[in-house]
Amino acid sequence: MRRLMLFIAATFGLAAAPLPASASPAVPEGENCEACEAVMDLALAHPRRKDDRARDQWRHPKETLAFFRVRPGMTVVDYMPSGGWYTRILVPYLGESGHYIGLNPDVRQGSEGMRKAFSDLAATFPAKAADWTGVAAERIGAFNTDGLPPALNGTVDRALIFREMHNIKRNGWLERELGAIHTLLKPDGMLGVVQHRARPDAPDAYVDGSKGYLREKEVVAMVEAQGFELVARSEVNANPKDPADHRAGVWTLPPNYRLGDQDRDRYTAIGESDRMTLLFRKRSR
């Protein structure tokens, strides 16, 4: 128990006897991790997440990150971190011996709006993440895939893509972006994917990415074609109430309510989208 409390104290900077860096390494896969659960509970309960917590019932961060085998001390890539919902969990959870890296796509050939929204992550994101988490900006890695330093290749334990596979597909980024992630991962590194899930019989026009929903079978095939193998599936983020056939796409549902007050009560009763949760392992090409 003392070791557990010291580990938690070191991870969150709490008052306690200092720990050497080697005292809180990443926990090997397959080991029961009492400390991991305790650190995660503290990260989720922190006041910094007061505006985030309402979505825990739909995003299930504790269960999702456990399924993806993310442990303190790891190096983790968070693809397209946007407003930092997972940043505020991962940075404190990974701890001082871990390494968080935000990664945005290469948008040099994209529209002006896309370049404005997603370029220059290295220049803008660390300060934001520091403000969100209380961790020094120097500890926050941030890159676009066209600016990744070669020294990072083969150093990443986990890469996580939360609800962005539809954007990767519809923008034609699949080979380039997943190729970059493949290169970053260690030989035994893993990729976790959460994605809005279409019905298996959804028409092709509905799963081109513009509606946010993709068929699970095709997501698995797309990722495996880029040098990964499926390890496991989880239904932790499933929502059987979602018919996944909304004319205005996934953004019809909360929290976006794209249709405004039209049928708002019905969409509130459905909740957020049905989602696949998939874990892949890097394989040699």
Short overview:
By secondary structure, the chain is an alpha/beta fold. Helix content is 33%, strand content 18%. The chain starts with a helix and ends with a strand.
Please give the radius of gyration in angstroms. 19 Å
Instruction: Using the coordinates shown, work out and report the CATH topology.
Output: Rossmann fold
Strand content: 15-25%
Low-pLDDT stretches: 14-25
CATH superfamily: Vaccinia Virus protein VP39
Please tally the helical runs, counting DSSP H or I stretches of 4 or more residues.
11
SSE pattern: HHHHEHEHHEEHHEHEHE
Biggest sheet strand line-up: 3-2-1-4-5-7-6
Structural domain count = 1
Shape: globular
Intertermini distance: 44 Å
Major sheet, described briefly? Answer: 7 strands, mixed
What structural class do you assign from the helix and strand content?
Answer: alpha/beta
Q: What's the average pLDDT?
A: 91
Structure description:
The protein is α/β, with parallel strands linked by helices and 285 residues long. It has one domain (2-282): 3-Layer(aba) Sandwich (Rossmann fold). It has eleven helices and seven strands. Strands 3-2-1-4-5-7-6 form a seven-stranded mixed beta sheet, sandwiched between helices. α1 runs parallel beside α2 (34-45) and α2 (34-45) crosses α5 (87-94). The radius of gyration is 19 Å and the shape is globular.
Structural key phrases:
alpha/beta, Rossmann fold, 7 strands, globular, 18% strand, 285 residues, seven-stranded mixed sheet
